[in-house]
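Reopening this one. Same input as before:
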Amino acid sequence: MRADVVACALCARLRRHCQTVATEKKAAHRDETYWGKPVPGFGDPGARLLIVGLAPAAHGANRTGRVFTGDGSGDFLMSALHRTGFANIATSRHAGDGLALDDAYILAAVRCAPPDNKPTPAEIARCRPHLAAEIAALPRVRVVVALGKIGFDAYLAFLSELLAPLGRAVKPRPAFGHGSRAELGGGLPVLLGSYHPSRQNTNTGKLTAPMLESVFREARRIIESRAPDGRG
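Same output, byte for byte:
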């Protein structure tokens, strides 16, 4: 599954952009070798919490090869996960930094860094099989936290494709918002919404550390209240 993600070349625009960034680099990282390839998910294969982000950052995960790693968004997210017991350290700097997730797994709706952080609808759709494959390998998920509307919508699109052959659908469609909670029924995970920890949101105060932490504390409460295997 990981190899399939890394080898994917379905979106020519995204592959060109990632390779260009990896070649030109950022001045602060000019001596580093960029990853420059699609980025698979990362975390605990037994996770009960799934986190769905947007896409790798050009000089973050596209450089380090690990989601939410190597930029301010990764540190902001990991700090919240550390405070709520889902991560062993509060930073996410590089793939060999010792970071480990406990009961959590992080992936992105799109696996390549898009120009201006804006993937097209077609690119999101082409990446959905990777999303489906990784989620299928996480059978214990109880809660999904979607970071931003693109991640939220991508997860709902995945559910629609999953349920359609069974004659089922998610109705009414949940609305995205920070702190939103959707009980989807039918044994599906609870879906929580959060603003994305991008610098645009964190530097302006749209998303604060307590706001993000509150979402993961809610995820923890749900997991512990629905833990028939006793792990909670």
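So the earlier flakiness isn't reproducible anymore. For the record, The mean pLDDT is 96.
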